[in-house]
């Protein structure tokens, strides 16, 4: 899956630098837009909700904190990263309250951006797998998980390990999800 990024930064050179600094495709990501202020960003978000927003804090019209607050209220699944030239405790506190994924101080390096993208990609991948399992558990596939397990119990090849492998999960993690969602332990030997 390719994840989408929106860059919100009032400084043109910083916006351009972010687009060229790191090969986002290496992280299965693409930049879908750029905005020079929070108001412009909000308009873009209404048309296409990105997976990740990299936003400056101090911008005209609608600052990054106001934008992040709107995004959190309307699209809580979006990952937010603050970019700022100010090492200000109030900004950091706002970031924590808004559940911002990262907070990068300018000037940042390529390594800073790469580390941040790597961390967010891990979160997005985990969310994607959890969503896939949730889809399975809520009957969006051919049948629900309990029925799949019941129908395969007679199969001598069926095990937690094989089910986990088919779904792309760690067996221990899948077992805990089954317990959480179905309220029962998976007792098949793996």
Automatic annotation (TrEMBL):
<protein>
    <submittedName>
        <fullName>Two-component response regulator yesN, associated with MetSO reductase</fullName>
    </submittedName>
</protein>
<feature type="modified residue" description="4-aspartylphosphate">
    <location>
        <position position="56"/>
    </location>
</feature>
<dbReference type="GO" id="GO:0003700">
    <property type="term" value="F:DNA-binding transcription factor activity"/>
</dbReference>
<dbReference type="Pfam" id="PF00072">
    <property type="entry name" value="Response_reg"/>
</dbReference>
<keyword id="KW-0175">Coiled coil</keyword>
<feature type="coiled-coil region">
    <location>
        <begin position="110"/>
        <end position="139"/>
    </location>
</feature>
<dbReference type="InterPro" id="IPR018060">
    <property type="entry name" value="HTH_AraC"/>
</dbReference>
<feature type="domain" description="Response regulatory">
    <location>
        <begin position="4"/>
        <end position="121"/>
    </location>
</feature>
<dbReference type="GO" id="GO:0000160">
    <property type="term" value="P:phosphorelay signal transduction system"/>
</dbReference>
<feature type="domain" description="HTH araC/xylS-type">
    <location>
        <begin position="143"/>
        <end position="190"/>
    </location>
</feature>
<dbReference type="InterPro" id="IPR001789">
    <property type="entry name" value="Sig_transdc_resp-reg_receiver"/>
</dbReference>
<dbReference type="GO" id="GO:0043565">
    <property type="term" value="F:sequence-specific DNA binding"/>
</dbReference>
<dbReference type="InterPro" id="IPR011006">
    <property type="entry name" value="CheY-like_superfamily"/>
</dbReference>
<dbReference type="InterPro" id="IPR052048">
    <property type="entry name" value="ST_Response_Regulator"/>
</dbReference>
<keyword id="KW-0597">Phosphoprotein</keyword>
């Amino acid at each position: 899956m390719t994840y989408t990024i929106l860059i919100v930064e009032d400084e043109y050179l910083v916006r351009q630098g972010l687009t060229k600094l790191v090969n986002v495709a290496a992280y299965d990501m693409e930049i879908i837009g750029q905005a020079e202020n929070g108001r412009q960003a909000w308009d873009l978000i209404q048309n296409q909700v990105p997976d990740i927003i990299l936003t400056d804090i101090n911008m005209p019209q609608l600052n990054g904190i106001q934008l992040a607050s709107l995004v959190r209220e309307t699209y809580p699944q979006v990952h937010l990263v603050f970019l700022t030239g100010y090492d200000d405790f109030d900004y950091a506190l706002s970031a924590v309250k808004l559940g911002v994924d990262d907070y990068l101080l300018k000037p940042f390096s390529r390594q800073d951006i790469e580390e941040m993208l790597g961390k967010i990609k891990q979160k997005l991948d985990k969310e994607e797998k959890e969503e896939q399992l949730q889809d399975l558990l809520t009957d969006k596939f051919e049948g629900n998980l309990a029925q799949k397990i019941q129908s395969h119990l007679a199969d001598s090849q069926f095990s937690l390990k094989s089910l986990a492998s088919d779904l792309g999960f760690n067996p221990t993690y899948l077992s805990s999800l089954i317990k959480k969602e179905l309220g029962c332990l998976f007792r098949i030997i793996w």
